[in-house]
Specification:
- This protein is mainly alpha-helical and about 170 residues long.
- The chain is built from five helices and no strands.
- The chain has helices at about 1-5, 25-40, 45-65, 70-120, 140.
- The two termini are about 100 Å apart.
Length: about 170
Amino acid sequence: MYEENADIKYELIPYDGFIGSKEFDFDKAIYDLNSQIELLSSQADNLDYVVAIASGIACGLLDILWVGEFDLANGRSIASDKVDAFVKKVVADAEAKAAEEKAAAAQATAEQPAVQQAAAEQPAKEQPAPQSAETQPEAENAEPAPAESRTPAQSGPDSEQPDMLA
């Protein structure tokens, strides 16, 4: 396998002797690179630099004369005032909401006796009349059956059941 690759032929051609190739054109590559460099390089002239310097000086003067000295204490007091105002607003909103809930609860309790009174005034159609001892069914007045005759469903945990294992 190494013997097959050992016979590679190569030839060095000096640039002066290079006629050119359709696949790779040096002149086109150089032109493309020069175009890209031109786009990335500064095109500013002296007037542009003078205008930039003048605007920097003007902004610096305005900052010194109009804005004044930089002071964190003044900034903190402004921020503190704004935070206090925000907290007061949130508390006022919460108190207003609580007052609305109280009013709604008071209104509901005021309406509740009226609802109870209206329910009491309606005739009791669905409620059965109380039964006297004479009209009650015999099953309620009857004595429970002896434990021997009870089925497991009728007997409970405290009922007397005969001991079947003995």
